[in-house]
Amino acid sequence: MRPAWSIIVFTSLSGLGLGMLFWFGLGMVVIEDPRDLILFVILGLSAVSIGLMSSLLHLGHPERAWRALSQWRSSWLSREGVCAVATIALTLVYAAVWYLDGERSLVLGLVVSVLSLVTVWTTAMIYGSLRTVARWYHPLTPWVYLALSACGGLVVIVAWEQSLLGESGLIELATVALLIALAVKAIWWKRAGRQQSSSTPETATGLGSMGQVDLLMAPHTEENWLQHEMGFVVARRHVNRLSQIAFGLAFIVPMIALWSGIAWLIISLPIIHFVGILTERWLFFAEAKHAVTLYYGERH
Amino acid sequence: MTMLPENPSAKKLGLVIDLDICVGCHACVVNCKEWNTGSEGAPLSDVNAYGAQQTGAWLNRIHTFEVTTDSTAQVVHFPKSCLHCTDAPCVTVCPTGASYKRVEDGIVLVNEDHCIGCGLCAWACPYGAREMDPVEQVMKKCTLCVDRIYNENLPEEDRVPACVRTCPTGARAFGDLGDPDSDVSQLVRERGGFDLMPEQQTSPVNKYLPPREKRHLIASDRASTEPEANSSKPDVEGFWGWVDSALAKLS
Ligand code: SF4
Ligand code: SF4
Ligand code: SF4
Predict the structure, then answer these.
(1) Spatial CB neighbours of B217, under 8 Å, sequence gap ≥ 6
(2) Is A148 domain-assigned?
(3) Helix A34-57 and helix A76-101: axis angle, to 10°?
(4) What residue of A is the nearest CA neighbor of B193?
(5) Is residue A204, in this structure, part of any structural domain at all?
């Protein structure tokens, strides 16, 4: 599949923001005064909403985007929209009540946390529910998104506490979260990567009983929209190098650097981690093979 | 509404495409484009139509495949358009309700005024039956010529999809595949019609009929003609010698 930047930024940035809101809802972030509260909410919500805005760029008709909130009964994309809007709204309520009362509401916090996780799940299922892409159509796909989002949120919060207090009590937890995310992603890469589509040029044409089926002539001389969108092959050559970069920056470097005690390094970890996640997400799309390419001479 | 109809009617309109007959002339493709560019929705646009790297939205495409075994090879022309699937994944993924399946006859359509051009329905379709219009930025797909088949302003014989009406070889049949006694259903039964990619669990309505076995493809026939073709040296020189050897290579 073509790795469109709008979609990559959407899934990774809103994933990071939702991870921050998840821990924030659980009350795991040190908030010392109302100013901290406002600042953290702005940080988290901008990550989520810049991500969402970016997904709008991908649309042919962004002005009609509100319609996408209507089909939550059947469509994961619609559910994603509804959940994201609900999470943003509830976060604002949670923060406002906290600001006015001077005290955190446990119940509202829990609602924000749960909604954040559900939103990440719905984002993942936009892709995880597509039978046409064997690699995505795997039960682990949403868990990868959840694990990445949760560890990303913690990395940001550790950096936040480091810059506010000069230390963070969440280093152990963040390390464990990074380790879990690394493991889940590595298992996904192995399992989902090996997930062979049962579709072939033979099943696509129904001519398998007659012999091996190969494309002799494409329907048109130039690339069409389908091939442009779903026939992306460039990345596959660089997969090994890119996956090393993704794993290194997203997990390994943060895990080591968290324990280094070097303040500036810990504070810049969110950026390092995020570059790793962007690379991971780029590969998520670029490596995916769509069933339609079987009609255009590919064999998966 | 992108839920699939809860109580769909038994009627399932669709096409039966005979791979034994299709000669890959693309006439159905051209007539499809012509009819649908002038129908209700936005025109089917082309970009840079006369230059290099032209692109455009088409609702029907003809692929040509080569089917080989150890000793045989056969060319099969393969028309492909929306199969109006019973369990259409393109419909359920649509976030806006723009994609829908008609209750009364199972035709899958896009309401272009509601479509946000997200492209997800095309990602969900395994067959490549949906294309984004490069100018309008809305999703385009086969409508089964819903504006012809019920159109009482047209003469009776024109009330079939444009591709069916135009096919010079009669490779395309249109009818109600939900009715076991319809002509198309009988044709499917007689000829062993099949679904494309049944493993994708879309339950397509459109069916394909397999090419009939070709006599010259039977391996023993082939073996007896092969050495002859290979050993043929022109006994005539010059132009006719070249024609002779060229023909020998072709046959
Ligand atoms: S062929 Fe594709 S576009 Fe048509 S109904 Fe089936 S899944 Fe949808
Ligand atoms: S491109 Fe249009 S029809 Fe397709 S899923 Fe998006 S909104 Fe629905
Ligand atoms: S018009 Fe008929 S013969 Fe020509 S490509 Fe279409 S289906 Fe095949």
Answers:
(1) B72, B74
(2) yes
(3) 160
(4) A206
(5) no
Residues 40-79 of B with CB under 8 A from A: 52-58, 61-69, 72, 74-76, 78
* Portion 111-140 of B in contact with A at CB < 8 A: 114-120, 122-128, 131-132, 134, 136-138
Which residues, judged by CB distance below 6 Å to any ligand atom, belong to the binding site of ligand 1?
B 82-85, 88-90, 108, 125, 127, 129-130, 141, 202
Phi-psi sector, B17: left (phi>0), alpha (psi -120 to 50), beta: beta
* Domain CATH number, residue A27: 1.20.1630.10
Spans of all domains in chain B: 13-47+54-209
Give the closest-approach CA distance of B95 to chain A in angstroms. 4
Q: How many domains does chain A have?
A: 1
Using pLDDT thresholds of 50, 70 and 90, give the confidence band for residue B53: confident
Q: Does some domain include residue A16?
A: yes
- Full-model pTM: 0.91
pLDDT 10s digits, B115-164: 999 999 999 999 999 999 999 999 999 999 999 999 999 999 999 999 99
A103 domain-assigned:
yes
pLDDT (tens digit, 9 = 90+) per residue, B93-110? 999 999 999 999 999 999
CA distance A213 to B143: 29
ipTM of the complex: 0.94
3-state secondary structure (DSSP) of residue A171: helix
Q: Is B172 in the pocket of ligand 3 (CB under 6 A)?
A: yes
- State the CATH architecture for B13-47+54-209: 2-Layer Sandwich (3.30)
Domain residue limits at A253? 5-58+66-198+223-296
Q: Do B61 and A210 touch (CB under 8 A)?
A: no
